[in-house]
Amino acid sequence: MLDVKLKFQPGHADGKDWMSGGPVKVLFWNVTRSCNFNCQICFSNSGAPDPDELTLPEAKTLIRRAHELGVVDVIITGGEPFMRPDLLEILSCMAELGITARIATNGSLLTEKLVERIRRETRTTSFLISLDSLDPCIYSEIHRVPPIQLEKALEALRFVRAHDFHTTVSIRLTPRTLPGIIDIVDRAADEGWATISLQRPIFSGRVEGAWPPMFDVLPLLEPVFEHFLSMPSRWRVETYMPWARYHPVIQKLEEKIPVGHVGCGAARGIAVIQPSGRVVPCVCFDVPASAMGNVRDQDLRAILQESPVRAMMKRPQDYGICDGCIHLSTCGGGCRATAFALSGNLAGADETCPLRRAAPRQ
Ligand code: SF4
Ligand code: SF4
Questions:
Q1: Residue whose CA is at the smallest distance from ligand 1 atom 4
Q2: Which of 15, 184, 288, 356 is the most exposed place for a label (fewest CB within 10 A)?
Q3: Does the CB atom of residue 245 touch ligand 2 within 6 A?
């Protein structure tokens, strides 16, 4: 995802070189496509469940196989993960093998009792709860739920804080959410939320009300960065855009605060399991051409280590991606999901790269 994270406390990512190789250690797992919200922007285009989602026995087989392959951390997402009645069993199975979980949720189904059980019975380390706005009307418009649901999300945040989980709030960056971000930064400092994840939609899934793909949103974030810099409890900023270190706004920011460039782990250090077992490189990159395999009928090791998509992500120079750019070995060729969304070509150009904007290539 094209995220910028404002961090008040250390979290999970360490900004190591994502092009340096090594096996996939972290999985994203969209455990269901079922969702009780109908957000304008949804990377997984969720709503109704897929007809062929992995059963609990299949899910447990997947967990065991992932463990054998050295997967240590799974980010549970959806759809809304808590729409799956067996989610606690899935988390417990992971915990038995020492696998930690991070859960991305809209928060609407979390109760204090459930959060307490998750703390006691699983190895969950953190929750990411979508907030998007502190204005009930805007929250309602973005998530297409009654305004009262904002209170539920805030209550869920209180539960996860009370049980000492690392707490992230996510905001999808749109013209509607931008004016309210500073209020969320202030609220985060007051409530002890550790991370604010600003997510720029990529043109995959549902993308209503977003800026057009070529619109450069980073300059609009400068007042947010300035506000964050003024806070006594700030820690650092993390970027997840492969080319972030070449963007002038980020370069300016880097003069004032440590910036971790976490970059693009897609098919390099991370992979995504879809509800029906299909494996794709990242949550925003699920098109037939990017499919790496399916855990139902293929071995997970072969999918994660030998798929042609992984080969392309690890050696973009062999596919003509960003030919001639001296930063290819550190950038990896930009965002493949964006490149595909813009060009329809797996090896196409990520035209949102700031160096391309500055000097368009032929
Ligand atoms: S392809 Fe990489 S940079 Fe693009 S959205 Fe996926 S993880 Fe992020
Ligand atoms: S031209 Fe390609 S490799 Fe170079 S910085 Fe831009 S996206 Fe990255």
A1: 335
A2: 288
A3: no
The confidence score (pLDDT) of residue 239 equals 96
- pLDDT given at position 115: 98
* The predicted structure's pLDDT at residue 10: 85
Three-state helix/strand/coil letters over the chain: CEEEEEECCCCCCCCCCCCCCCCCCEEEEECCCECCCCCCEECCCCECCCCCCCCHHHHHHHHHHHHHCCCCEEEEECCCHHHCCCHHHHHHHHHHCCCEEEEEECCCCCCHHHHHHHHHHCCEEEEEEECCCCCHHHHHHHHCCCCCHHHHHHHHHHHHHHCCCEEEEEEECCCCCHHHHHHHHHHHHHHCCCEEEEEECCCCCEECCCCCCCCCCHHHHHHHHHHHHCCCCCCEEEECCCCHHHCHHHHHHHCCCCEEECCCCECCCEEEECCCCEEECCCCCCCHHHCCEECCCCCHHHHHHHCHHHHHHHCHHHHCCCCCCCCHHHHCCCCHHHHHHHHCCCCCCCCCCHHHHHCCCC
Residue 333 Cβ < 6 Å to ligand 2: yes
